[in-house]
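Hi there,

I know you've been waiting on this one. I reran it after we fixed the sequence typo, so this is the corrected version. Both the input and the resulting structure follow.
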Amino acid sequence: MYYRVAFSVSIKAPKGFDISFAKHRNFIRWLRDQGFAIKGISCDTWGGPMMQQELKSDGFEVKTVSVDRVNAKTHQQEQYAYFKTTMTDRRLKVYQKCDFLTEEVLGLERLSDGHIEHPDAGKSGSKDQIDAVVGALWNASQHAEDYAYNYGDNINAGLDVSLAGSDEKSRKQLMADYQAELQKIYAETYAELNEADEKRSKEEKEAYEYLKDISDGIFCL
């Protein structure tokens, strides 16, 4: 599964006031009214029951996803472990202007008991936004089978539906054109990844050239 974070929003209540759950719900409803196809909503345990009840009554599929629980067997927070995997596998694309989200990610620490926390002295002092992203990512991953497809079977299924009255030659030609277009997309994608790898290798090489003169006096763990 590949994912894209379209946006993330953090809300801070004015001093002396609480966060408005009603505004959260209205924002989600507004997104749907603007044309966003919302397939699922995840809530944590804090304030979750009320949020779930009202959003479910609006026709949304809502689940409780707590990203703070540690698996007793693996000693990991599974949701954060999955987030790390998607990052290292380059299966997660994030919108460009994500400074606050980046600050929260860089401030994360894994404690000895397996919990993922943030240092109190961190620049953002929060991990609420990355918690929300990780929860949404995990929720989406649980529906992988809903979006999985068999390459050959889906092409044939699509052709059976859209070309029921066409001859065999037309069907074969459309299949060939479709496969060629997919191969073109794959080739362009890999070209972009290779270009990014070459750029990173060049930057790492330049950094090494800069540091190698003093490398004899550096110890790394």
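Quick highlight: The CA atoms of residues 93 and 202 lie 22 Å apart.

Best,
R. S.
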